[in-house]
Every structure is written in structure tokens, then in C-alpha cells.
Amino acid sequence: MKKQTLLYALIVLTMSCETDKKTEDTASKYVEESHSYAKPNESVIKHLDLNIDVNFTTKTIDGTATYTIDTNNASEIILDSKFLEIESVEADGKATNFNLGDFDEQLGQALHISIENDTKQISVHYKTTDKTEALQWLNPQQTADKTHPFLFTQGQAILTRSWIPIQDSPQIRITYDATVKVPKELMAVMSAENPKEKTVDGIYTFKMKQPISPYLMALAVGDIAYKAVSNRTGVYAEKSMVDKAQAEFSDMEKMVVAAENLYGDYDWDQFDVIVLPPSFPFGGMENPRLTFATPTVIAGDKSLTSLIAHELAHSWSGNLVTNATWNDFWLNEGFTVYFEIRIMEALYGKDRANMIALIGRQDLEEEVEGFKDEPEMTKLKLDLTDKNPDDGMNSIAYDKGYLFLRTLEEKVGRDKFDAFLKNYFKTNAFSTVTTEGFIDYLNSNLLEPNGIDFNVDEWVYQAGVPNNQAIIVSDKFENAKNTLQSFIDNKTVDASKTSNWTTQEWVHFIRNFPETITTEDLKRLDDAFDLTNSSNSHIAMVWYEQAINHDYHGNDVDQRIEDFLIRVGRRWYVSTLYKAFKRNDKVDDALAIYNKARANYHSVTANTIDDLLGYNQ
Ligand code: BES
Ligand code: ZN
Predict the structure, then answer these.
(1) In terms of CATH architecture, what is 475-613?
(2) Nearest CA residue ID for atom 16, ligand 1
(3) Residue 21's pLDDT is what?
């Protein structure tokens, strides 16, 4: 009897310890966040089984999302949902009550699902609608090969909820399995283990075994093929692009090796890139195992491949160690630009790295100037409550973030800084970090042990750029500026001066035209270097910006600008050009083009340009 009581007491004791531990684990594990309705401290998703049909005729995806969940004795679990039709919901296989909350323009709706305190699994049967923002359905004319339609998704920042009902916060991490049915002539790929060939029945299965944040869920469907670059890197693209892509990205394996040498093993096994049709709204998107990229990065001479280094770097900064909220976005992008430039330095040397850094610094100066009436937007740590997280996704996070880390590196020395970063990625792997968490880690692992005083708070919490910023110099850029000055003075350019120029030197040369440059001078440069017809998208973009700024209309440049804006949907490029029209009081010209171009843009680009030009649908 005594023995039994003891045993019973022991059981109760261990049980209560376990409950305590459980509350400790889950309680306050997730920080408050304004861009998701989910309450993960109460109930949280852990694994997703996605089973969907992709229908190009109705332009919808429909199917079932089944989640394994963890709950803390909650009576409901809340998912985010936007523009989805929710058909029915089950908890452990039995129909359960659900309801959708009020619709918010940014956040969509909260999907409340009733559960029992021992519910292990919920299934949501749903369908996307024609408003679904993450998806872009392309007709054959909008692809490179022009014979088959194409679909791709874009999840970051808060769009995944518009194609999958999900707890759409970067703090959530899930593994997933997916079964995706597509028309037989097409192939499906995801941010997961991918097929290398088409299947006969159009059914594809996927597995992502490492836990990822929902904004990294991604799917592309099209008539695509695969070519390997090394045994763990390769490219997917439409047939007419795949060889070009393979050649352009032939240094991918070297990039992975350089990255691993810097900050530790690549944890995702495979690193592939899919080259999408030109309406893809970003340069690149770091979907795990499968970066999505714009075809405008293919210049024919590998000159724009720092974009691949950038997306690869996100495999550490972003995908492995993730910003906890979108207010901490600089932790994803600032670190990634720093890492990108280190990879570029390792492969191609300091000259190339410093040119990329200086282009970023000029972007930063322009961004700070652009925010002169909203200086709080130039802080690294933002407050995006009640705002679209997109509002914080500008050069500040990227280029001020970069400059902060580079300045820190120069202050503490590269060896110490690299060791610190390597540890940071290792310690925080597969979890999220807040700005405050990073600063604590920085203080206790780098600054205090080395007795270093650094104005971290000023960099992170104050507007503008502190005056201890690292000085970046480039002889090549000095030369390009001298060449520009001598052209302004003498009206000719000695061809031997520019024959070896890289894309970065051209970009620097063009962006630094004096305000007083004449249209005659622009015509001379255009005739000498055929800038209007440049096949390099970055050179073309900065040249078009100058044409708009300086009222230059030679060599049919207006038509080329229109063609570019209709064909390309990359938000950074097109918004630079529409902004130039606006700045120069040419909104009508911009709208005339935008009316023709808008249908080709993904919703994230269209939303930005709608706001910029005051366009009403
Ligand atoms: N993760 C970003 C793209 C992004 C940012 C999508 C915010 C949605 C919201 C990606 O890594 C990126 O930074 N792309 C840049 C590439 C460049 C900095 C090399 C781009 O698209 O231009
Ligand atoms: Zn990035």
C-alpha cells in the first residue's frame, strides 16, 4: 500500500513537471506580432500535408491542407486566410465548427477552428479565388517558349495565406509533404525535394524535411526542364532558357563552397534555381532548396550573378535564422547583403565586392533622401503595425543593414567577426531572432568579451546613417567618374577606357551623370555605346531612368522603355522607372504605359505601382 502511494506520488510529480515544462516551452515562446491572426502560444501547426489540384482552366488551386498541431489546452486554433473559399474543416477526421473573422485589407481573415484539447490533426478543404494574391497565372504569350501556361507563387511577406490557409508568421516553422496534380504536359516544383523530370500522370510528390517558415512555401508549374551544374546545384527553366541559365550560373557550386567556408555547412542538401518568366516580381526569392529568379539576371556574361550569391546567402540568414517579425526584416536582408558581398569577394575579389557595396550605398543615400519627411522609416528596427510589411522592404534594411555589419566588421576585425557570425548561425539554426535578441547576442558574444564600444543603438534604433560608417573605395569607380568628367569636358570617350568595363562600372558611370547633362551629350553616349538597346537589364534600367530624368528621346528610347515596362515585372526595376516619371512631372506618360503593362504584373508589383501613380482599377 505504502509502495503504491509512493509510486502514485511519483507519477503525479513527473506529470506535473511535464506540464510545467510544456507551459514553459510554449508560453511566451512566440512574441507578439501584428501581421498574423494566429495565437501560436495557444495552438500551433507543426507539419503540413498538402494535397492540391492546379487547374489552369479555372485558374484555381483546390484541395486539402492537413496540419499536425500542438495545443496548450486551447479550444480553438487560428489560421490566417485571405481570399480563400473554406469549404469544410475536420479535427481528427471529424467535421468541426469553423468561422472566418472580419476581413482586413492587409491581413485577410482569421480562420477560427474549434478543437478538443487532445486534437492532433486538422484538415481544411479549400479553394483559391480570382483575388488570390500569391499566385500569378501566365498565359503562353507571357512565357519564354510561348506554348504552355505557367504558374508561380510568391509568399513573402504575408501572401502565403492567400494560397494556403496557414499560421502565416515567420515565427512558425513547419515541415511539409505535398501531392500536387497538374496538367500532364507541365512539371511542378516546390521549395522542397524536387523531381528532375516530368511524370506521366502529372502527379508530383514533395517532401521538405527541415522546418521552414510559411513565407517560404513555394510552387511553380510550367513546361520546364532541369540541368545540373554540380551534384548539388542546378537550374530549372523553360526549354529555350535552360542552357543559357546553366551557363550563366556555372559558378553556383563555387558559391556554395565559399559560403560554407565562411559560415558553416549548407543545411538544405540541394541548391537549385528556377528561372521564371519576366513578370516575376523580384530579382530573386530564396525559397529553400529552390531559389526563384527573374530572367533579367541572365546577362550572358555572369555579370549579375551576385543575385544568386544573395539568395544562396539566405539559406543561412533568413531560412535558417529567421527574422521573428517583419519589423526585424533587416536581420534577414542586411545580413544577406553582407554575406552576398563576402561570397562575391571570395569568388571574384575585393574590387568586384566593393563595387557592389558602393552601388548599394548610393541606393541607400537616395532612399534616405526619399524618406526625408518620414525619417522613422530609415531606422533598421521598424514599427510596421497597421502597415503593409512591404512598406519596410526597401534599401534601408538591405544597404543600411549591410553598412552596419561592415562597419562592425572593420571595428572588431574580420577573424573575430566571422567566428561570431558562424556561431550566431549555429546557435540560432532553425529558429527566429528579434532585433533585441540579436543585440543581446552581439553584446555578450562579441562586444563585451573584446571590450569593444560600438554605437549599436544608434545604428539600429535611430534614423539616418551614423557618421562612423565604413569608408568604401573603388579605384574602378574613381576611373569611371574621371572618364565621365572627361567626356563632359571633351565630348568624346576614349574607347580604350571603357572596353574592359564591367556592368557595375557602367551602372556607376550612368547613375552619376551631372544634373546639367544635355540631351546632345546623351545622344553622343547612346550613339557610341548603344545604351538604349543594352541587353543587360541593369544597365538598361539605369539608362532609361536617366533618359526620363533628362528628357532624352533619341534612338527610339521611349519605345524601348515602354517595351521594357510591359515585358518585365521586376518590382525594383519598374518602380525605379515609374518613380522617375513621377519625379519629373510625367505621370501621364507613366499611366499611358502602365495601362498597357499592368495586366502583366504580379499583384505585389501592381499594388506598389497603383499606390505610386494613384491608379484606380
Ligand atoms: N527576399 C527577397 C525578396 C523579397 C523581399 C520578397 C521582400 C518579398 C518581400 C530577396 O532575397 C531579395 O532581396 N531580392 C532582391 C535581390 C537583390 C537584393 C540581389 C531583388 O528582388 O531585387
Ligand atoms: Zn534578400
Answers:
(1) Alpha Horseshoe (1.25)
(2) 283
(3) 40
Catalytic residues, by residue number, are: 311, 398
**Ramachandran category for residue 551: left, alpha or beta (phi over 0 → left; psi -120 to 50 → alpha):** left
Distance set, CA 380 to CA 80, 327, 462 (Å): 27, 8, 8
Question: What residues contact 605, with CB distance under 8 A and at least 6 apart?
Answer: 279, 281, 569, 570, 571, 574, 575
Q: What is the CATH number of domain 316-461?
A: 1.10.390.10
Probe residue for ligand 1, chosen from 285, 296, 322, 363 as the CB with the greatest number of ligand atoms within 8 Å = 285
What are the angstrom distances between the C-alpha of 469 and each of 222, 339, 404?
A: 46, 18, 7
Tell whether omega for the bond before 313 is within 30 degrees of 0, i.e. cis. no
| Residue of 275, 291, 271, 274 lying closest to 216 (CA atoms) | 291
Nearest Cα to Cα of residue 355 among 306, 425, 282, 404: 306
pLDDT surpassing 60 at residue 502? yes
Q: Kindly tell me if the per-residue pLDDT of 557 is higher than 50.
A: yes
Domain 244-313 of CATH type 3.30.2010.30: yes
Burial of 237 (0-12, 13-18, 19+ CB in 10 A): buried
pLDDT at position 2 over 70: no
Residue in 74, 59, 71, 64 with CA at minimum distance from that of residue 165: 64
pLDDT-based confidence at residue 12 (cuts at 50, 70, 90) = very low
User: Where are the chain's structural domains?
Assistant: 1-30, 43-222, 244-313, 316-461, 475-613
Mean pLDDT, the chain, rounded, equals: 95
- Measured CA to CA in angstroms, residue 272 lies from 32, 235, 438, 585 at distances of 34, 6, 30, 43
Is the CB of 282 inside a 6 Å radius of any atom of ligand 1? Answer: yes
Domain 475-613 in the same topology as domain 316-461: no
Return the ligand number nearest the Cα of 541.
1
So what's the architecture of 43-222 in CATH?
Answer: Sandwich (2.60)
In DSSP terms, which residues pair with 444 in a beta bridge? none
Closest ligand to the CA of 276: 1
- Predicted pLDDT of residue 616: 86
Name the percent of the chain lying above pLDDT 90: 94
Strand (E) or helix (H) holding 48:
strand 43-55
Cα 543–Cα 544–Cα 547 angle in degrees, nearest 5: 90
**pLDDT of 227 above 90:** yes
pTM for this prediction: 0.95
Cell output for 221: 508549374
CB contact burial 484-496 (16+ within 10 A = b; e otherwise) = beebeeeeebeee
CA 20 to CA 122: how far, in whole Å? 26
**Each residue's pLDDT tens digit, 76-118:** 999 999 999 999 999 999 999 999 999 999 999 999 999 999 9
